[in-house]
Fold this protein.
Amino acid sequence: MQGDSQREDLRQELAADLNGAFERLVLEYQDRLYRFALSYTGDPRDAEEVVQDALIRAYGALGRYEPTRVRELALRAWLYRITLNVARNRARGVRPRLVPLEGPDGDTALPEPEADSAERPDSVYEGAERRRELDALLAGLPARYREAVVLRHVEGLAYEEAAEVLGRKVGTVKSDVHRGLRLLRDAIGDRRTDEVI
Amino acid sequence: MDTRYTNGRMDSAEDAASEALIRELSRHRAVRAPASVLPVVLAGAGLADAYAPTDSPIGPVFVAYNREGISFVRLAGDHDAFESSFRSRFGRPARNLERLPRDLALAIERQLAGDVRAGLRLDLRELSEFERAVLSKAREVPRGEVRTYSWLAREIGRPRAARAVGAALGNNPIPLLVPCHRVIRSDGHLNGYVFGGEAKRRALEAEGADPDELERLARSGVRFVGSDTTRIYCFPTCRNARRISERHLVPFASALEAAASGYRPCRVCRPAV
């Protein structure tokens, strides 16, 4: 994770020369915003479009803001918030496709886990598979809990920052995370039981 | 084992399950954004152009775009050659993408299929006002039809600029999407094309036009055709001309001849005004 001083530098640069500094913003934040969008949509192609749209909107907004406002921006929370809004709007507009039209990188269909997967040592392949499984389960959570769990435990945000992104009280976010984790555990439990049967 | 997440309020089984889950969730942090995010964002912000291959009636082409719209179309081939010709023409780089964004690819596909409401935006900023006028008039020629250089010159109010019209079409940065292939010589010769004469022929054929027939008609001295029932004359490929039955079709060598025979020009294809 980057230091606060580095983030300060970026905001200074954005305020002074948006066009020159914007590429750095993209490079610095694209991974975490993509992850966030992926956990939200459950589909790599949709997640990619959400992040692209969000960053283009961010550029437009930064161009309209006064430099003093840019320098004081809580950049990370602000970018998560834009991404969240884009993802929410898309979810309202079009139902996400469950089966992507093309692969392989657009392929989110869940491979059936092998029966003895719990006994096998971790491998890269299995890690990726588990991640896709967890992504799908996350995408199935009600949005309110999904958003809170992803920000807190995937992105590692403090409760205070997650609360700022979500526009909810810190206490509410804590209980949303708690409830979300429980729902997720139940969903995983159901899945594992299905495998045995 | 890391017990940071223990808070005493959960029972220990629930606690352990949550801990395992939280560890698993945190492993998601290894996920990276696809390489196409940066070029698409910079193109969308208007800071750079992005390009990717896409299919066309004359084979795969590279399509470059930015915030203003499509900026450049060339036959797909060597990336370095495309990038260097882009840079030398526009003075800025174009970054390669694996594929175009879905909405853009769809709009291109619809436009190539003849959908006039595809809503494709074009970036023609680098062109002169005259060149823009020529290209925007060329876009009005319907799919499967052809007009002539002198027709286009007249339509944009520069009747003596037919040669300059030809040069402007030859400088078209966005062939196919700006259908410069639908403008040919008055004598029926297909004339030049940025992708070569053979490609021009194929582009016309893909739209249902018949280049051989066009050339044959022109060689036999026919420039326009009229209907002896409506006493209206048209360019031979005009949709109104194609409705005239053989029995009522009257060929003309010139607008003058048609006018002398008491025919008026079609209001759709405007062979004369």
User: Anything to note?
Assistant: The domain at 1-95 of chain A is CATH 1.10.1740.10 (Rna Polymerase Sigma Factor; Chain: A).
